[in-house]
Specification:
alpha/beta
Length: about 180
């Protein structure tokens, strides 16, 4: 039986991520990302790469955003459009349970889009030019909750009656990500 895990886009393509200046934190995430991918390959787990809504909306040179900025009707609708083909794939795999087992979804905790248990929150908005944004940046916090893309994915799975485990890659809790590779 082929085991399948859905993964956030940047788990396989880190070039799509917002440039980070937190080098130590990113090094921990990168080490865990490699550990998860090696374990998936070693265990014969097949990976479905989800689209990156942030890259598709804003490209490679975007600023970092927050859940609060993405949680609007326009962004959620774009997420639905991006996820529709993914849901069709899942339905096809589920119609063939003798051949395929869906292990779940592995997001990226801390992401305003792909966080599963943690997301980035801040009441940002407005122009950068001519404004001291120091206080706004300090207001950015890691909070419990899903990112917008994962929130929409959960809604769509529920609408289709599909139950799947979901967790996030989080360097401070590596066992969670590794646990997704076990049925």
């Amino acid at each position: 039986m082929k085991q399948i895990l859905l993964v956030s886009h940047c788990l396989l393509n880190t070039a799509s991520k917002v440039k980070s200046f937190k080098e130590e934190e990113m090094a921990k995430e990168e080490a865990l990302r490699r550990q998860v991918l090696h374990a998936a390959i070693d265990n014969g787990v097949h990976l479905i790469q989800l689209p990156c809504p942030e890259f598709l909306q804003y490209g490679a040179r975007r600023w970092g955003h927050t859940f609060d900025q993405f949680n609007n009707v326009f962004f959620r609708e774009q997420c639905r459009k991006m996820l529709k083909p993914v849901l069709l794939q899942l339905q096809e795999y589920l119609e063939n349970p003798e051949e395929f087992e869906l292990l779940g979804v592995l997001g990226i905790d801390g992401s305003p889009s792909c966080g599963v248990k943690y997301t980035c929150r801040a009441p940002w908005g407005g122009e950068f030019s001519g404004r001291d944004v120091t206080d706004a940046v300090k207001g950015c916090k890691l909070e419990e909750g899903s990112g917008v893309f994962m929130m929409v994915l959960k809604e769509m799975l529920k609408e289709k009656g599909i139950e799947m485990k979901m967790d996030g890659l989080f360097a401070h809790e590596p066992e969670r990500a590794m646990g997704m590779l076990k049925p």
